[in-house]
Amino acid sequence: MNNNSSARTASFMRLRQEGRTEEVVRRLIEVIDLGLFAEGEQLPSENELAMQFGVATVTLREALAYLRERRVIETRRGRNGGSFVCPAIELPEVHLRARLADMSALELRDLCDEHVAISGAAARLAAKRSSSEHHAKLQHYIDALGDATTRTERRRADARFHIEIAVAAQSVRLTHAEMSLQAEIGELMWIPEEGSITPEAAQSEHRAIAEAIMANDPNLAGALAEAHVTRGIKRLIDLRLDLLAEVA
To answer: Which residues form the HTH gntR-type domain (predicted)?
Structure first.
């Protein structure tokens, strides 16, 4: 893992509270699940990870042990040993539908309110603060969505686009908030169902947001990001109603 990648990922991982194994586990699962650490990629050393999270080494080791038990990571011994990310296991669609059906209408509405607020603020700030490097990252994940061939790849490209907007806003808090939201509902957005968004449609909406950011138009960027998120949650609400009707 190169120094630039390590520094970039570290900004996603700083904990609000120190010494909590559960917090370390949750954040590592988030960054792995969202593809911030790629399959087969070696994690930083235990000392480096502990420093990035702001926790004691013993806490970090407890978290890694838990992730090994869940087969999220594997540890290899020897000269080139360390902790490596295991291949992702794609959840069956039936599990995702069940998870969505268990969510309440109020929970989805609250998620929509929160995500609209976060994404809109991030896009507006990105239009004011982003650099050409940020713009290139946004374009990369727009292209990655078009190249994706699996649900996991589509979900990760989609999530990383939204996370990169928060990164371009140069706000650690907005980045953490966007990551948490993507970890919570991002996979549900790609449940294959009649009326669900296509990669082509998502690409088009992402491209419009990115163009507004690159044009330094905060009002348009924010409005497009908010509309994009609202449409996505609305599709989830409609799908949840359909799922509930099927079992009624």
So the answer is: 18-88
Q: What is the pLDDT of residues 218-248, one digit of tens each?
A: 999 999 999 999 999 999 999 999 999 887 6
Residue range of the domain that includes 141: 93-247
- 144 vs 5: CA distance, rounded Å: 18
φ, ψ for residue 245, nearest 5 deg: -65, -35
Q: What is the pLDDT at residue 210? A: 98
Co-location of 150 and 238 in the same domain? yes
* Rounded CA separation 219/45 (Å): 42
The domain spanning residue 143 has which CATH number? 1.20.120.530
Q: Which of 85, 105, 124 is the last residue of a domain?
A: 85
Shared domain check, 122 and 16? no
**In whole angstroms, what is the distance from residue 2 CA to residue 133 CA?**
17
**Per-residue model confidence as pLDDT tens digits over 95-149:** 999 999 999 999 999 999 999 999 999 999 999 999 999 999 999 999 999 999 9
Q: Give the domain-ending residue among 19, 52, 85.
A: 85
What gap in Å lies between CA 114 and CA 101, rounded to an integer? Answer: 20
Q: Report the distance separating Cα 218 and Cα 122, nearest Å.
A: 10
Check: CB of residue 167 under 8 Å from CB of residue 182: no
Instruction: Tell me the three-class secondary structure of 133-162, residue by residue.
Output: HHHHHHHHHHHHHHHCCCHHHHHHHHHHHH
Torsion of CA 150, 182, 99, 116, to 10 degrees: -120
From residue 212, alpha-carbon distances to 123, 206, 227 in Å are 9, 10, 14
